[in-house]
Design goal:
There is one protein chain. By secondary structure, the protein is α/β, with parallel strands linked by helices. The chain has 3 domains: 4-47, no CATH class; 58-153, Response regulator (Rossmann fold); 160-290, Rossmann fold, CATH 3.40.50.2300. The protein has helices spanning 4-11, 15-22, 30-43, 49-56, 72-87, 101-112, 130-136, 160-173, 189-204, 221-233, 246-259, 292-307; strands spanning 61-66, 91-96, 118-121, 141-144, 155-158, 179-182, 214-215, 240-243, 268-273, 286-289, 315-318, 321-323. The strands form 2 sheets. It has a 6-stranded parallel beta sheet, with helices on both faces. Strand 3 (118-121), helix 7 (130-136) and strand 4 form a beta-alpha-beta unit. Helix 8 packs parallel to helix 9 and helix 10 packs across helix 11 (246-259). The longest helix has 16 residues, at 72-87. It starts with a helix and ends in a 27-residue tail after the last strand.
Length: 350
């Protein structure tokens, strides 16, 4: 490996002169500068980027912990953040946590060890307090998309409850009264908010909420598949399914196809995310669109502002919108009639 001393000897100057010339912190005579540049080119010298960053007291890198980069929603979010960071001169150190709490803790510990200057964390599992306490002891962490209970850190979320309320209102307007919900892990803040929006819309229309039709599991297509099989076995079978993630909808479509059921003729489907390719599903998926690009850019903006010592908002919520495509049937012709309201006990989990 060619060193700074090798360049200095070849150019006939001191190592300090080479270092300051390459850092543009000194103006040398042109003949000397040209001699150093020629030695650098001839020897193929590359400055030690890590040492250079550490000398500045900054790693010039951002940590990004995401649950599952095979999920198109998270893949796009990672891509947006990486591109925005590159524009600001920062690299990305990516942790694919696969929803594992120990991997999330490892990412926070890497921040404590100064592997990078700040961390954007997308949590994937309910916390027992361990991760929240660890986050609260660190600076320069932004929570994106999902909350960690008790953590003291800026948050960038979307209007989850408003999204599922819009989706449910759309289903009700199309005549659906018996709706199943396939959600993510029980105990996650975003999941609770999305169920809250669904329940709120049902209550507003005096429609029943049946706990047997609210299913919790992982945000994976496999869980969507298994949950859809269970929905198809229900009697009477719900006329519509609302998922809390488009990735769950992928599994739902696979299961219904396996059973010979058609969307939307036999059962309607609404997702949440508007992940890439949702409009290319068969049929194109009606879903709630999250502003993925804005989410990623804003999380990075708040993180870099925090690193620079600026005040940032404790919580930012971005609006969502309903994207109507072809996966919901209009059954307002009287095929399905509204049932009497169900009794929902106060404080009862739903």
């Amino acid at each position: 490996m060619v060193t700074l001393n090798d360049v200095a000897r070849a150019a006939g100057v001191s190592p300090t002169a080479v270092s300051r010339h390459l850092n543009r912190s000194i103006a040398l005579p042109k003949v000397t500068a040209d001699r150093i540049d020629a030695a650098v080119a001839r020897l193929g010298y590359r400055p030690n980027a890590l040492a250079k960053r550490l000398s500045k007291g900054k790693a010039e890198a951002i940590g990004l912990a995401a649950p599952d980069i095979s999920n198109p929603f998270f893949a796009e979010l990672v891509s947006v953040i990486e591109a925005a960071a590159a524009e600001r001169g920062y690299g990305i150190s990516l942790f694919s946590t696969r929803g594992d709490r120990e991997r999330e803790i490892e990412a926070v510990n890497h921040l404590a060890d100064r592997y990078f200057d700040g961390l954007i964390l997308i949590a994937a599992q309910p916390d027992d307090g361990t991760l929240g306490a660890l986050i609260s002891r660190q600076n320069h962490i932004v929570l994106l998309d999902e909350d960690v209970l008790g953590a003291q850190a800026p948050r960038v979320f979307v209007e989850n409850a408003a999204g599922t309320r819009m989706a449910t209102e759309h289903l009700i307007a199309m005549g659906h009264r018996d709706i199943a919900v396939i959600a993510g892990p029980d105990g996650l803040g975003s999941v609770a908010e999305r169920i809250e929006g669904f329940v709120g819309a049902m209550i507003a229309h005096s429609l029943p909420v049946d706990e047997r039709r609210l299913m919790h599991g992982s945000f994976t297509s496999d869980f969507g598949y298994q949950a859809a099989l269970a929905v198809a076995r229900m009697s009477p079978r719900p006329t519509a399914i609302l998922t809390c993630s488009d990735y769950l909808s992928v599994g739902v479509l696979r299961a219904l196809h396996h059973l010979g059921l058609s969307v939307p003729d036999d059962i309607s489907l609404v997702g949440f995310d508007d992940m890439p390719l949702a409009e290319l599903f068969d049929p194109p998926l009606t879903t709630i669109r999250q502003p993925i690009a804005e989410m990623g850019r804003l999380a990075l903006e708040w993180l870099l502002a925090s690193i620079d010592g600026a005040e940032v908002p404790a919580l930012t919520r971005l609006p969502v919108e309903l994207i109507v495509r072809k996966s919901v049937a209009d059954i307002t012709g009287g095929t399905v009639k509204a049932k009497p309201p169900a009794l929902i006990k106060e404080g009862q989990p739903i």
